[in-house]
Amino acid sequence: MTTVQSPLAGRAIGLAAVPDPVFSGAMVGPGTAIDPVREPSEAVSPLDGVIVSLHPHAFVVVDAQGRGVLTHLGIDTVQLNGEGFELLVNKGDTVARGQSVVRWNPAAVETVGKSPVCPVVALEATAEALAELREDGDVKTGDTLFVWN
Predict the structure, then answer these.
(1) Which positions are catalytic?
(2) Burial code of 52-88, b = ≥16 C-beta within 10 A, e = fewer?
């Protein structure tokens, strides 16, 4: 069992509300999404593991059971070419749950016309494998988003 915690503070909205068909259709995998508070912040690792993929706007952490969780900071933010994002770790680093990974400003993302909504996705999981899925209400960094059984 893997407990996945919120990498950000904000409001849980569920993947269906993400303004991107790849995420809202759960094509990447099941999970939820956070509409983040509009202030400069640091996205943290949602679980203990290794950073296997790292971009300014997205990262994947794989835990000891081989389960990968994608945190995607905003929608279409790849088009910003890293502007406004600061990496705080390196690919291949071992990170602890709650450790800062990327510094960014959701309000600045919104200012340039992108959605700051952040999908948090269980890669290669089935929807049935996730329990206690948070799809509404306010969340603080570190609150449980879902349990991957």
Answers:
(1) 72
(2) eebbbbbbbbbbeeebbbbbbbbbebeebeeebbeee
